[in-house]
Amino acid sequence: MEEFIARNLLQVDESMVAEEADAELGALLLRYLRHGYERRVGAWVHGGRDEHETLRRTCHAAEVLHRLDLDSDTDGMVRAAGNWLINLPVRGNMLAGDRRDMHLYPSRFKTLAYLDRFDDQEVRRDFQMLLRKEVSGLVRNMSESDILTTCIVVDTLQQLDQAGRRHEVCTAEQYGAMIRALRLQMRAWRPPNTKTSDRRTSSRCEIDNPRDLSYVFGLLLHADRENVTVKTVTEVVSFLTAKVMEGTRARGTDLAQSLYAALQLAEHYRGDETVRLALLRILEDLRTVYSIGEATKRWDVMIHTLVLRLLLAYYGDAPFTRAVAARFLYAAEQRRDAQQDVLEMDLKAIVRERMAVQLGGVKELSGGFTEDRVYHVPFNYWFATPGTDQERRDILDRSSANSLIVKQSSRDAFLLATDNYNQLPPHVRSLFVRLPTESQVIKSRQSSSYFLIMEDLTDLFTLRHLFNEFDQRAMSEQHRKLLQRAAAVACDAVFRMFRSTNATRSNFPGTQLSLLYLSKIEEKLTRAVGQVPWLKNPIQGFRVGEQRFKGLDYYLGLITKHANVLQPRALGLVHGDFHSRNIMLDRDCTRLKLIDLDKISRSGDYLADLGTLIQDVCVYRRVSEPERDFGLAREEIVFAANPAAEAGTVENAVRFPALGRSATVCFQEEILEAAERFAEDGEDVGWKPRLWLATATALLMRLAFQTEIEPAAVLYAEGVRLLHELSRLLEHGQPLPGLFFPLDWPESQMARASGPAELPEWAKANELVRSVHLGLLSLGLTPEYDRTAVRYYVEAAGDGPVAALTPAHRDAVARLLLYCEPMESALPTGVQVQLNSKPGERLRTAMLLSGTASPESVVSLARIGLGESIKQTKRPAIRQRG
């Protein structure tokens, strides 16, 4: 029997759910017990003819097969085993003491009671002899554990009690004494390492292992539940659950202890969530061990029957028996189908021998960020009939009349995508390409790849293919309408997915912003720096054209600071990889199918899908195909030379033309309008800044797939530019631009006309403020305007403002903030100076200006405070603190 499992390993198909896999394990264990049954004897005979071992095996096997109650053959084995246990046909030369011990073996009586075979008078006399060994409620000196012996006896009596026959063999007083003794033992038990002041109580406890503890606990729950305290239940269940969690890592007797604990918990506390998880874990461990088989060589019959008893307790006797029967039926059907399949395969091979296939020009439709590929495969075929050689040449030489769409991927990716497809809500599933059963995935004969014929994509094209066709310098009105329609159906697909499963913020934690965006940026950038080490420099600070950007940490910190504004109001179903090669459309851009389901998430932000699509068609499409008419040529990406650097190196500064084109502008406008309508319906007020963050995240994530410096520079530059625009909104209330990627670089706000018309309304209305503003401009400072303040820089987008005009409170009309230490010179009339002690504040000195202040005096004082910083325009002399 020991070799049976090793020769017949558990075969679990990956498509099986846990219940089916456990039923397959139950079927294997039933075959194991049938294999070990000796029909001539009617028992499970030990190979060495050890009667004691035969007795032990037969008790375990007969009891569990009686519970399984599968068929007439099983019933016959149980009936014959009962006869053997009653007769005990042992060798005649056995010593009298050994013969007596076999007759009084406690499990013999328990098994016969379970089989309802307790009528034999010799069996009853033997059992009453065993009962006479009871002392103060415990049956003594029959095994290594008096607790175990007493439990087996009480278990036997409970089975007889259910049949109304306990009084025939045991008095109520003796039965009550044994129950009381077990109750006292349970009360005296303490969890290991528990400190107790009553050492006398703990010293009286004879329960010293999980098997005995679980057995006593289960019997008392049946016969004495009212005397089992809540504290006892809590402690015992917690201890047994911890033992179960050890799973199959335990060996030998320790494994049996875990199984006994699991058996009682499955019987009484399967509804407890912690217990359920522990039971699921040990069942999963058992399936793994039985599929390997090496460890099971050391397991005896008792372990295997305990596993089968655990399965029966967890699923219920009748349901599990039906499930095991179903696996036997399925195996028979599989054998029959396999025989039919062999015949069909032979016949198909004969037909294929007479057929010729000619492929046309195979075109790749998808691919990019993974190793998956989707191909359009045109072909002709010819079948041989007598005298058709010329027809063969004619057919195979003509242009292909048939075609297939074929996806190349790995088996695991196909299985994951199929699982995701099957879990989609039915009303959303129509958006996706149909995915097959595992049998429809074809293994390559030449490599490790697998192929799938995607039948419902034959007449469709990728959005990338159509966009490339429509993206012309002089775009026709027809192409514009098709692009708008493509954007609309893509957005509708995103919104339909999200509506199907979305959950409000109250149902998920508040850290989603980091999970959805920030952590992804950091993860992909770590990989990107390893592939393009140059990225280490711009991450610390970057110049694009005339615009200087801060380090990436600065922008991510601002986003974290304003996380409450950017947190999504709801999460739902998203595609997870919504780029233009995963979106298939017909020529009219009305019918859509989505492919690549392996990144689907049910707790995502719909704006992440839209951000991925926007960056893909507007940026990544252009930098990944530089040779195309719409591509961004490598020579258009110019790095600033650094004379101080070694030859061949470049500075972290780059210049390239604006990436907007007529087609991408049209596409962006349509997506923004659709997103705004959807957000309004869902009361998602923070949608637009979050879409900016989503698009920037998608750009920065694409860096992980780059190995060349030029496309990496453009992707990083555009991503950090969007973060810069987002930070200006969050910090200063500056509105976001109308488009992500416009036709031309937007005119810098600091390069616009610096006349009074640009001032905020409160500043326009005050002559003193207007005069101070003009005076600061005369110092060579460059202004930047928003709704409430004017900030002044020594150069466009320098390291930070050196001055600012803001409204004031109380008696002052304005505040002039300066990047300098407090000034010790005498203050003119109408001016007060204060030090801003707020940590990290750049503009530390505040000049409060009242209506009596002289504009000339104020400007003169500002000139003194700013010092050298206003004398140059290339780099400010004042160094930024912190």
Gist of the model:
The chain has 882 residues and is of the alpha+beta class. The protein is 50% helix and 11% strand.
Structure, explained:
It is a single chain. This protein has 882 residues and is an alpha+beta fold. Helix content is 50%, strand content 11%. The chain is built from 32 helices and 24 strands. Strands 3, 4, 5, 6, 7 and 8 form a six-stranded antiparallel sheet that branches. Helix 2 (18-36) packs across helix 14 (273-292) and helix 22 packs parallel to helix 28. The longest helix has 37 residues, at 317-353. The protein is elongated and about 125 Å long. The model is unreliable at 641-650, 748-755 and 872-882 (pLDDT under 50).
What topology emerges from the helices and strands here?
Layout: H1 4-7, H2 18-36, H3 51-68, H4 72-87, H5 96-103, H6 106-114, H7 121-131, E1 134-135, E2 138-139, H8 146-162, H9 172-188, H10 199-203, H11 210-223, H12 230-245, H13 253-268, H14 273-292, H15 301-315, H16 317-353, E3 355-359, E4 363-364, E5 373-383, H17 389-397, E6 402-409, H18 411-422, H19 426-429, E7 442-443, E8 450-453, E9 461-462, H20 463-470, H21 477-501, E10 503-504, H22 512-531, H23 536-540, E11 542-544, E12 547-549, H24 552-561, H25 563-566, E13 570-574, E14 583-585, E15 592-594, E16 601-604, H26 606-624, E17 638-639, E18 653-655, H27 662-681, H28 687-701, H29 709-732, H30 761-764, H31 767-778, E19 782-785, E20 790-793, E21 803-806, E22 814-818, E23 831-835, E24 845-849, H32 855-866
Parallel strand pairs: 11-18
Antiparallel strand pairs: 1-2, 3-5, 4-5, 5-6, 6-8, 7-8, 9-14, 10-13, 11-12, 13-16, 14-15, 17-18, 19-20, 20-21, 21-22, 22-24, 23-24
Helix pairs in contact: 2-14, 2-15, 2-16, 3-4, 3-6, 3-15, 6-8, 8-9, 8-11, 9-11, 11-12, 11-13, 12-13, 12-14, 13-15, 15-16, 21-27, 22-28, 24-29, 26-27, 26-28, 26-29, 28-29, 31-32
